[in-house]
Write a structure and sequence with these properties.
Largest sheet: 6 strands, parallel
Radius of gyration: 32 Å
Strand order of the largest sheet: 3-2-1-4-5-6
Number of helices: 13
Structural class: alpha/beta
Order of helices and strands: HHHHHEHEEHEHEHEHHEEHEEEEH
CATH class of the largest domain: Alpha Beta
Helix content: 40-55%
C-alpha cells in the first residue's frame, strides 16, 4: 500500500511539481503548528480548537511571507526555535510555490499564443484555414458584426503563423487543418459552426471528410475554388442523408461557397457595376446586406408572399424579401411571385440594415383578428 501511494506521489510530482511544493508547505505548517501548540500553547490558545488552529495558521503565513505584523509572538525558547525554522524554510517554500504558479501561468500563456494549447470549448465557431491574414481578419470581422455570433467563442486553425496574430479575443490552434490533433485541440466535436477554407480544394475536401466523421451536427460551410470539385461535397451530403434515415438524427447539409469573381467577369460586360453591387451586399459594414430568416416556426399557417413582404418591411430592419428556400425539399426561389405562399420553417432571404427581429406571432395573430 505504501508503495502504491509513493508511486502516485512521484507520478503527481512529475506532472505538477508546484502541487508537490504546496503539499510540502502544508505539511511543514501542520508539523510546526503541532510543535508550537505543544511548547507555546498559551500564546495561541483561543476559546475553541478551530480558532486556535486558525490563529496558528495566520501566524505561519504572516511569518512565511515576511509580513511580520507582530500580533502573535512565540515566547518560549522552543517556540522561537521552531519560528526560526519556519522563517527559513517557510519563506523558501512560499517563494517556490509562488514562482511555480507564475511559471505555470507563463507556460500556459506561451502555449496559447503559439497555438499549442488544448482548448475546452462548446458551441463555438471554428475556422479551419482561411489563407492570408487579411482574408481571415475580414472573415472574423464579418462574424463579429453579426448579432447572432458577436459573443461566440472563435477559434482559427492554421499552420502559417508561429504565434496568434489575431489578438486575445480569438483562440489560435497551430497545425495542419486536416490533422486529428488540430481537430481535437480546437474542439471541433463540440463546435456549433465550422468554416473550412483550405489552401487547395484537395485540402478542403480532406478536412471536410475529417470534420464529417467527428461532428455532423455542426453548421458546416466549405469554400471550393473549382466547381467541378463540388461533387465531392455532394457525396458527403448524400452520406449524411443516408445516415439520417438510419439513426433518425437530423444532420445539417454542408454548404458550399464558390468564387464570385469569375462569375461576374462575363456578367459585368452587359451589366456594368453589377459586381460592385454584389460586393456591397456581401459587406455588412457597408450598410444593407443579406440575411436569412426562418418563417414563423411552430405556427401552422400558410401566408401569401405579398403579406410576408409587408410584415418584413414593417420591422425596424426594413427588410426586403428577395428569395425563399423551401424547408420541405430545399428548393430555392428567387424573387418569388405574388401567387406564391410561404410555409412554416421556410427560410426567407432578405436584404436589411441588420438581422430582422420579426415577432411573427403578433403579426400573424393580428391578421387573424
Amino acid at each position: 500500500m505504501y508503495l502504491v501511494i509513493y508511486k502516485k506521489i512521484r507520478r503527481l510530482y512529475k506532472k505538477s511539481d508546484w502541487f508537490t511544493i504546496i503539499i510540502i508547505l502544508l505539511c511543514l505548517h501542520a508539523f510546526s503548528a503541532a510543535l508550537l501548540l505543544f511548547f507555546d500553547y498559551e500564546t495561541f490558545a483561543q476559546e475553541t480548537i478551530a480558532k486556535t488552529l486558525w490563529k496558528g495558521t495566520w501566524w505561519f503565513f504572516v511569518t512565511a511571507t515576511t509580513v511580520g505584523y507582530g500580533d502573535i509572538v512565540p515566547h518560549s525558547i522552543p517556540g522561537q526555535v521552531i519560528a526560526i525554522f519556519d522563517m527559513i524554510f517557510g519563506i523558501g517554500l512560499m517563494a517556490a510555490a509562488i514562482g511555480a504558479g507564475a511559471d505555470k501561468l507563463i507556460e500556459r500563456r506561451k502555449l496559447r499564443v503559439r497555438g499549442l494549447k488544448q482548448l475546452n470549448l462548446k458551441n463555438h465557431i471554428v475556422i479551419l484555414g482561411g489563407g492570408a491574414k487579411q482574408k481571415v481578419d475580414t472573415l472574423i470581422a464579418e462574424i463579429r458584426n453579426d448579432s447572432f455570433y458577436c459573443r461566440t467563442d472563435l477559434v482559427v486553425c492554421s499552420d502559417v503563423y508561429d504565434e496568434n496574430p489575431f489578438g486575445d479575443e480569438v483562440e489560435y490552434i497551430r497545425g495542419a487543418i486536416s490533422s486529428d490533433d488540430v481537430l481535437k485541440r480546437s474542439c471541433v466535436d463540440t463546435a456549433d459552426c465550422v468554416i473550412i477554407y483550405g489552401y487547395t480544394d484537395e485540402e478542403t475536401i480532406l478536412t471536410t471528410l475529417a470534420v464529417d466523421e467527428i461532428n455532423r451536427l455542426a453548421f458546416t460551410t466549405v469554400y471550393i475554388r473549382d466547381r467541378s470539385n463540388i461533387r465531392h461535397i455532394d457525396r458527403i451530403n448524400k452520406s449524411r442523408i443516408a445516415h439520417r434515415h438510419i439513426d433518425g438524427i437530423h444532420y445539417t447539409r454542408i454548404r458550399v461557397i464558390t468564387r464570385l469573381n469569375d462569375l461576374m467577369l462575363a456578367r459585368e460586360i452587359s451589366n456594368p457595376d453589377l459586381s460592385e453591387v454584389v460586393l456591397l451586399l456581401m459587406d455588412s459594414k457597408a450598410g444593407d446586406t443579406f440575411y436569412s430568416v426562418k418563417a414563423w416556426p411552430g405556427l401552422d399557417k400558410m401566408i401569401p408572399v405579398p403579406r410576408v413582404r409587408q410584415m418584413l418591411r414593417s420591422t425596424d430592419a426594413h427588410a426586403l424579401l428577395v428569395g425563399i428556400k423551401r424547408d420541405e425539399d430545399g428548393t430555392i426561389m428567387m424573387n418569388p411571385g405574388e401567387d406564391v405562399e410561404v410555409y412554416p420553417n421556410d427560410h426567407l432571404f432578405v436584404i436589411a440594415v441588420h438581422r430582422p427581429d420579426v415577432d411573427w406571432v403578433s403579426l400573424i395573430l393580428g391578421d387573424d383578428r
